[in-house]
């Protein structure tokens, strides 16, 4: 497969870019932050997303979606990264849609997927429990009870958890921390008895929640996939999320880089544009090269996910690890090359720095993925 | 030598007796720093007691002469005080631009009258100073500054704008660079002048930072009248004073990473990441990043110590503070990147009580300025290339 976008994909990119840059420039995020908006994103814009088919991108045709793949999801994520638009796209349209369409029973799919596609259902994936992303360490306990289970434990960093109508929860139904066997995914109503959601204000002004489960009862129908065998499904869904976040980081890096290069041409010191100093020229050139290489690795991973999800792990780890370090470098250089201006809130560059830090942590940082790669390669 | 050992023992005993336990804990945030000044407030009783005891002993600035409110200690003794304070984790009783920047410049260039007027007020924490160097169009190219001072009898009338003036809104006085001869070459028409921020015509406007705090301001001068006697050093030769002061500023900033250092990074990381079966940090890559950071940190500490000793021996290069500033600030940024990585998602929360109001991410964002303030890393490397390595065209 050629590592270039097809004509259809380019059209998708153009329409996503048009909409997002028009309706949700960085100023959009800024005003949501400044007004301490309770939702944290624009529901109106989400409706528009649904009308344009973005919310159903990964939903199969028969359930009202367009049945496209990870490359297409990545294209939208990259545009989101350019303006840092807060949106349920990742949690609902990417993670939940792929979890349900890959692991759901016919009944579960029929119940939820059409609503994801038409934008009326918001969902969130609840995985992390500790400070670092360690899905195998899942401890949240699922204890058999009657024909169902009782869930007890905590989740943190649940992206969009505070607005979700449906939670997809990873729980330990057997075995202990570190075991691949014994994980089960559940579909849980956030209004269920014993469940408490706390929205957490994050550094990047995006949404996340901490959720406490206190003997939350779920019936057997709410198991997504197979009992005790949830890790394979989860890993696939996480890899799709990782590829998507890597794509967001490519968009973010490129945008920061573009703004920085513009500044290098405008800002004068010592009677000339600072872009004339070779000390900055070489670093700008290096950053350009770094971003281009990462862009290729990310596209490669997105394609690999579409070809064979189960074999895409290494490519995804390469992409996520690189995108994290590239984005970190891009925002650091962005702030540094803007001098004092880069430190001010009035300037947008700080928003990129904050979002990059969160994306780095989301679904495993560069260290985690370098380690995954080593394991994937058998050393 | 025996005398010094005696001095060390006395110092240790005195600190043990007089430094409150609370003042031996790492600072929770920047707000725990005591800056002094007319409008100052102590954040705790312990902070007040500690400051007052050190002030009465002359140890807010141990190495300044006694007649100016210092401790009158020689270099060896001052080092012992620093070491003994560090050994018990004692905080600085007073942090101020007066101590770290203006003081050294006044000691070298000030008249006896200026020294007697200003230095004791600095050591006693009575006056808080700010630094009026940068302007919107004079950042790295500081000497292109445009703020004008025009003579009028015994006074100057000052007009212009400064930017990034740290704590201008809390400061009592400013040390300021102004252009007194617009016709001269750019380095030759600048003077270094002191004035009260309460003077008519001075106004400040805080600038909000990416960390959510506003530590610095835009500062405006509209026909501010300042006596000519407030010029430090020779009129139009202010650049010499400015540069000398910058060396001290750079030395201070390079040491910022050591300020308020709490537990070792590896232990902080272990809290969130956990340990493997052998008791090692359960993230091999993070572990190696921390270890190599700590190697560099230890080496920098040695270099900082050596820089002081070289200066005492009269062997240091005047531009070496630029090398230290570059290395120290880049290292401090690395430290906070690692802290963020070690903190994982806990370090991403911004407003919760759990995260102490997002103390860690806010501190992380603040460090990004270390390689900008007091001269950028690029400018520091340029100075090393030109002044130390004598490279052509640099
Ligand atoms: C937190 C903070 C506190 C500060 N406090 C004070 C204060 O109290 N008082 C005060 O007067 N100032 C203060 N400053 C200002 C500080 O000294 C300036 O921001 C700094 O000198 C850089 O100037 P600038 O912001 O105009 O950036 P610019 O000079 O515009 O620099 C932009 C970029 O160009 C690069 N560049 C410029 N010239 C060259 C060159 N010749 N070669 C290679 N690269 C170059 C810079 O390194 C930087 O990356 C503070 C700044 C910060 C961030």
Automatic annotation (TrEMBL), chain A:
InterPro entries: Acyl-CoA_Oxase/DH_mid-dom (IPR006091), Acyl-CoA_Oxase/DH_mid-dom_sf (IPR046373), AcylCo_DH-like_C (IPR036250), AcylCo_DH/oxidase_C (IPR009075), AcylCoA_DH/ox_N (IPR013786), AcylCoA_DH/ox_N_sf (IPR037069), AcylCoA_DH/oxidase_NM_dom_sf (IPR009100)
Acyl-CoA dehydrogenase/oxidase C-terminal domain: residues covered: 228-376
Segments forming domain Acyl-CoA dehydrogenase/oxidase N-terminal: 6-119
Domain Acyl-CoA oxidase/dehydrogenase middle residues, every copy: 129-216
Cofactor(s) required for function per UniProt: FAD
Pfam families per the UniProt record, alphabetical: Acyl-CoA_dh_1, Acyl-CoA_dh_M, Acyl-CoA_dh_N
Molecular function in Gene Ontology: acyl-CoA dehydrogenase activity; flavin adenine dinucleotide binding
UniProt-listed CDD domains: ACAD
Key words, A-Z: FAD, Flavoprotein, Oxidoreductase
Similarity field: Belongs to the acyl-CoA dehydrogenase family.
This protein's name: Acyl-CoA dehydrogenase family protein
Species for this entry: Bradyrhizobium septentrionale
Automatic annotation (TrEMBL), chain B:
SUPFAM superfamilies on file: Acyl-CoA dehydrogenase C-terminal domain-like (SSF47203), Acyl-CoA dehydrogenase NM domain-like (SSF56645)
GO CC entries: plasma membrane
A single GO molecular function term of this UniProt record: flavin adenine dinucleotide binding
Cofactor(s) of this protein: FAD
The keyword Oxidoreductase is assigned to this record: yes
UniProt entry tagged with the keyword Ribosomal protein: no
Domain Acyl-CoA dehydrogenase/oxidase C-terminal: residue ranges: 236-389
Keyword list, A-Z: FAD, Flavoprotein, Oxidoreductase
Residues covered by the Acyl-CoA oxidase/dehydrogenase middle domain: 130-224
Acyl-CoA dehydrogenase/oxidase N-terminal domain boundaries: 5-125
Source superkingdom: Bacteria
Family to which this protein belongs: Belongs to the acyl-CoA dehydrogenase family.
Name used for this protein in its record: Acyl-CoA dehydrogenase family protein
Protein's organism: Bradyrhizobium septentrionale
